Every structure is written in structure tokens, then in C-alpha cells.
Amino acid sequence: MKLTTIGIDLAKNVFQVHGVDERGKAVLKKPLKRDQMAAFFANLTPCLIGMEACGSAHFWANKLQAMGHTVKLMAPQFVKPYVKTNKNDAADAEAICEAVSRPNMRFVPIKHGEQQAVLALHRARQGFVKARTAQANQIRGLLAEYGIIIPQGIAHISKRLPEILEDGENGLPGIFRHLIARLGDHIKELDRQAQELEVQIQAWHRENAASKKLAQIPGIGPITASALVASIGNARNFENGRQLAAWLGLVPRQNSSGGKQTLLGISKRGDTYLRTLLIHGARAVIRVAERKAEHARSWLAGVMGRRNKNVAAVALANKNARIVWALLAQDRDYKADYGLVA
């Protein structure tokens, strides 16, 4: 039995394995428990292994690559068309095995441990920020039931809450005052946790040359730069800057047919978090650029003259994504006047 290609349907405890030989004939169909996986693949001749990019996929990809195998990860939506029958673990493993052998299949770059750790910091910080926003909205809504209105913004919560709690004439019951004080302490704790994680992210950013390089681009700061470096990994996995922008969902969707090109809004594919950071950074650049005299003849001013600010922000985020690819893939430093003719 000479295995050349294997598809693994990942799970928590029981993994389904499907293997074929050089002629494409199925020669292996078996389930493996988690504690059997390492020993089974350590005794196999190095071969091509395909998996869906899902939970624990990067861990197993790194582990199997260390054993000499070639591992490729695929987005689940690209594997689904190869499922021939009803969904079950065996059919999924067979579909993965078939999909990984396709010459035009798109693969997901494998992340190493440090990339995963930095992205974990980002995800945890994002969770604290969302929880902080939700808690602020709850406080604002509860106080509104007693006729006390707090303007939008986290800063207004921390500023107004002590005054509201100390005001004995606003009609708030004692039990409600204790509740609001508790919720106020909770929002302070969430804010502290988010700030501590941000400090860790910035410390990693200062030690990473690629991240510091990206932070030179207007609209990209330490948070965005570190998230991009950790998510992209090797930028040469993308052929050009447009592929990176498409991977981030910053290019138009198409509904073209019969030779007629129909472009819609942006596709919003890929990582929502990265796309949001880039667009928010672009909005900050637009706010600053409007107050500068040299902005009048810039590329950004031309876009803003034709379209509204939201479209201009997405266009600038798209441009920044392409610059990110150029800096990482070609090992360049950012130059604000690059390509300009004196």
C-alpha cells in the first residue's frame, strides 16, 4: 500500500482518514482516535495531506509537517462541492482528499505558533472591547428608564456615572444605585483588561521588524500592523497586491455574464477584523488629510471629489492593503513619494 494523498476530517476525539494511491484508488478508510494520530502518521511515508482550515487545523498542520509530510489547508466552502453523497465523516474525508489534489485549488497559509499567539491576543482584546461596549450600552439603557440620558461614547459613561451615583435627588432607588455601581466597576475592569492586552500587542510590535515597517503607512498603526503580519505570514503566498486585497474582502463583487462586467459593493470576504481595522485607519487618514493644504492635489482628494467619504475610505484601505503586500513580499521600506515624478 503506497499512499500518496490523504484527506483528514478533523474532530475533537475521532478523526476520519481517507487515503489514495498514485492512481487515485482508495486504499485507506479508517477512523483514528486523537491519541492514535501521531503514531499513525509518524510511521507513514511522507505524502500529501489535506485538511479543512478549521479548529486545531494549524496545530495538526505544524505537527504533521514536522514528520516530513506536505500539509495543505483549504477553506471548507471549497471542499463542499466534492462531497458526493450525504454528509458524514467518511464522505467529508474523501472530499478533502479529492479537493487537495486539484491543481487549481486555493490553499490557506499555515500559521506557526507565534502567529497564533499574537492573533489570540487580538481576539481576546476584541472580545473585551465588545463586552465593554455592550456593558456601556446596558448602563445607558437602564439609566434611560429613570430619565437619565448619557451621550454616546465610553468616555461619557466614566465621566457621568460618579455624578449620577452621588446625586441624591435624581430619584434612583438604593438597590438600583448599587447595581449601576457594580456595572460601572465591571466596565472599568473590562477597560483595564483591554488596555493590558493592547500593551502586550504593542510590545510584540516593537520587536517585529515587519510590523514596524507596516506601521509607517498612513492609516496603519501598531494594532493593525501586528494583526496583518500575524495573519498574512509569508506575503509571497499571494501573487500580487490585488490578491491580498481580495483576500481581505476589499475588492468589488462581480455579477458578470455575456461579456458585460457588473461590479457591485465590496465582497466582504475574509477576516472581518482586519478589514475593519484597515477601513477605520483609512477614515482617520481622511479626517486628517482634509485639514492639510497639500491634500488638494492628492490621489485621495480626487477620489473624495468623485465619491462619498465611505467609498473613499474603502478605496484607501484597498490601496493600503496593496502597499502592505509590496512591503512584505518585496522587502521594501515605505516611501510616501514612491512613484512620483519630480
TrEMBL record:
What Pfam families would the database entry show?
DEDD_Tnp_IS110, Transposase_20
* Residue ranges annotated for the Transposase IS116/IS110/IS902 C-terminal domain, each copy included: 212-291
Keyword presence, NADP: no
Keywords linked to the UniProt accession:
Coiled coil
**Is 4Fe-4S there in the keyword field?**
no
Its name, as the record gives it, is IS110 family transposase
Recorded coiled-coil stretches: 180-207
Domain Transposase IS110-like N-terminal per the UniProt entry, residue ranges: 6-146
State the superkingdom: Bacteria
